[in-house]
Structures are given as structure tokens and as C-alpha cells.
Amino acid sequence: MSNHITVEGKIGQDPELRFSTSGMAVAEFSVADTYGKDDKKKTTWHNCTAFGSLAENIVASLKKGNTVIVTGRYEQDEYTKKDGTKGKSIKFIVDACGPSLRWDVWLKDRTADTIKEVFAGAKVGRQMPAVEADEEPF
To answer: What CATH number has the domain bearing residue 14?
Structure first.
């Protein structure tokens, strides 16, 4: 039996990045899955947690209001409430996440790729010619 699910919805608040005691990146964010029509519209909130480089990429790429597609699984945690009784919470553990193109256009910032290409094409050890102070360099 598989516990793997996919959710499409809007991010409720900017994803927050923190690090575990072992140094692993952990991102937490919520996704609102709204369904139905007009007065029968309902929203389910999913508390999402991602780890490692996925967590870092989510925080760097996505923000509140973005429509995303998230795949992963649910895990249930037990905890002790302030009054001493046991409580349960459900977390959505994220395996993959990305922008949904159903309603929005998504453009990746390729600045880093362009910089790498420019430096990869540059000749190592090449120096700019000397320019006099009153002379234009071009």
C-alpha cells in the first residue's frame, strides 16, 4: 500500500528555512488546496516539510501565493499537550515540489547559468590592455 500523494494549491506563507542540529536544511510551509464552487468551496491546509537541497531550493524559489504541485507522503506525530494529554499532528513530507503552470507563467532566473557560461568561455590568464587615464576603454 502506498502513502504517496500529490497536492496542488497555493503557498500560504513564505517557506521558512531552519537547520537541524546535524546541519540538515529543513523548510516548512503550508499549501492551501481549494476545491468546490461558489458557496460550496472548501479549503484544506497541508503543513509541508522538506529536507536537504530540496528545502533550500524551495525557500530560494517559491513564496507566498505561488501555485505549486507538491508530491510526498503524510506522517503522523504524537506529542504531549500542555495539559498532559496526548495529541496528534499530521505532516506532509515533501519528496518533490515545483510551480504549477496551470494558471501562471513561471520564468527561471538564469543569471547564475549565464555567469558560469561567460567565465567558462573566458581565457585564463588573459589580461585587459592598459588604458590611458583620459582614453575611453572601448
So the answer is: 2.40.50.140
Residue with cell 488546496: 33
Instruction: Tell me the per-residue pLDDT of 58-97, one tens digit each, with 9 for 90 and over.
Output: 999 999 999 999 999 999 988 899 999 999 988 999 999 9
Average pLDDT, whole number, for the chain? 85
What pLDDT digit, counting tens, does each position of 16-37 carry? 999 999 999 999 999 999 999 8
Query: What's the predicted TM-score (pTM) here?
Result: 0.71
Between CA 6 and CA 70 the distance in angstroms is 6
* Bridge partner list, 11: 31
Element (H or E) spanning 119, and its range?
helix 111-121
Q: Residue 87's domain spans which residues?
A: 4-106
Residue 108 to residue 115: CA distance in whole angstroms: 15
3-state secondary structure of 120: helix
For residue 112, is it within any domain?
Answer: no
Q: Which three cell numbers stand for residue 116?
A: 558560469
Sign of the torsion angle spanned by Cα atoms 11, 16, 20, 23: positive
